Amino acid sequence: MLRTNDPNPQLDYELVCIEHMVEPNHFLRHVEKYIDFDFILDKVRHLYSESNGRPSLDPIVFFKMLLIGYLYNVRSERELERVVNDTVSFRWFLRLGLTGRAPDHSTFSWNRKHRFHDTTIFQDIFDQIVKQAIEYRMVGGRLLVTDSTHIKANANNGRYEKREVTYTPQEYLQELENAVNEDREQFGKKPFPPEEEVETKTIKVSLTDPDSGYLNRDGKPEGFHYLDHRTVDHKYNIITDCHVTAGNVNDSVVYIERLEHQLSKFNFRSTIEAVALDSGYWTPYVC
Question: What is the pLDDT of residues 48-59, one digit of tens each?
């Protein structure tokens, strides 16, 4: 018998349970089960007024939406608002129900840019989730693999100005100089006077995105980029550190600082056995 799904006024209102509309093995169910997001409230509470102003965007919803954007490669905040409103599993994950609305993209953008400006909130939340992974024994801390990847900046490669910048010796040279002077003092000799070796270099600075850097390396696309310096623990490929710099910053420049951050923050000093790097990190400082 022929049958069609003609509109039925009685179906305009239905009693449904959103819990039953998300597949039992959905990836976000695993995220919700194993990651405790409640700590975010304690991390950000001091940045909100207890009694003044309008109700804020829920901080947990904000950071969960950022996670959805990362996991499902949603690059636009306007698009992120749309897919959250249209996707039942995202609504379930954010606890919006079927009638709640995702935060407006402009509100979301303002919070991302201004709410946590000049704070370490993003890094603190990232580190806390890594610590939860360590508690579940998903991070071994024995072998840390680090590399960087370029991210194209939203900048016109033809709109820039040239600036002359100065560079001072790297930290390891200063450490060597201090060690030599300590030895000289032990033998009753005068320490060498400090030598400030300053070098100058002309670089291109974008007029549309001055925080980016002009990337010009063999085998890489030329233009204004950022570098995502990322470290992964070998056990289950959990990312333990992510640090973004301008595209003209060499991989090796920030490596020791980011390694020290992980060693101290996650107590890897007692577990670390080796690190894996490519030839871009083969510098005297890193060695």
Answer: 888 888 888 999
